[in-house]
Design goal:
Elements (H helix, E strand, L loop, with lengths): L11 E4 L4 E3 L7 E6 L6 H12 L1 H6 L2 E7 L3 H11 L5 E3 L4 H6 L2 E6 L2 E6 L2 E5 L5 E5 L7 H8 L27
Parallel strand pairs: 3-4, 4-5
Antiparallel strand pairs: 1-2, 1-5, 3-8, 6-7, 8-9
């Protein structure tokens, strides 16, 4: 997996909108490039929604964000529409970009070794080098870590995607 200080590999992928997106499109700007296993799965959905809900804060920190998975452009479009996502999703069906970044490989899933997408995020600096690498991402709280890496961590926590439980009602104690 790439680490901080490494040069980000050039890429060219098609987005959910059918547009070709290249690393060079972000030259001179910061880019948050995150890799996720699959559209419409619980963790991937929470992560995409969290990035989407934080897109203004990410932009205020001078960065753009894109997600990458091996899902098709059609799948990405459906995923985007279903969850009203505000970030581009790039299709990497041949795993070229995932392999280049080290986001594809052996991992343990439910106690078994499998080959697949390693959920990871890279903050690419304006000069095209990796400014921050997040290997083996845990979804909950991850966007806050990315915002902190972008220098936007003092703007408060990112919106929580999961519904919060209603506060418990106070029940009067029984008299004895």
């Amino acid at each position: 997996m790439l680490k901080e200080g490494d040069k980000a590999p050039a890429f060219e992928l098609v987005s959910d909108a059918g547009q070709t997106v290249r690393l060079s499109d972000f030259a001179g700007k910061k880019l948050v490039l995150y890799f996720y296993p699959r559209d419409n799965t619980p963790g991937c959905t929470r992560e995409a929604i969290a990035f989407s809900e934080s897109v203004k804060r990410i932009a205020a920190a001078g960065a753009s964000v894109v997600g990458v998975s091996r899902d098709s452009v059609k799948s990405h479009g459906s995923f985007r529409d279903k969850h009203a996502l505000k970030i581009p999703l790039l299709s990497d069906p041949d795993l070229v970009v995932q392999r280049a970044f080290g986001a594809w490989g052996d991992k343990t899933m439910y106690g078994k070794k499998v080959e697949g997408t390693i959920r990871s995020t890279f903050v690419i600096g304006p000069d095209g080098t990796i400014a921050k690498a997040f290997p083996s991402v845990k979804v909950d709280g991850h966007v806050d870590q990315v915002l902190a890496a972008l220098g936007a961590g003092d703007a408060g926590p990112a919106q929580k995607v999961e519904a919060k439980a209603a506060p418990a009602k106070k029940v009067p104690a029984k008299k004895r």
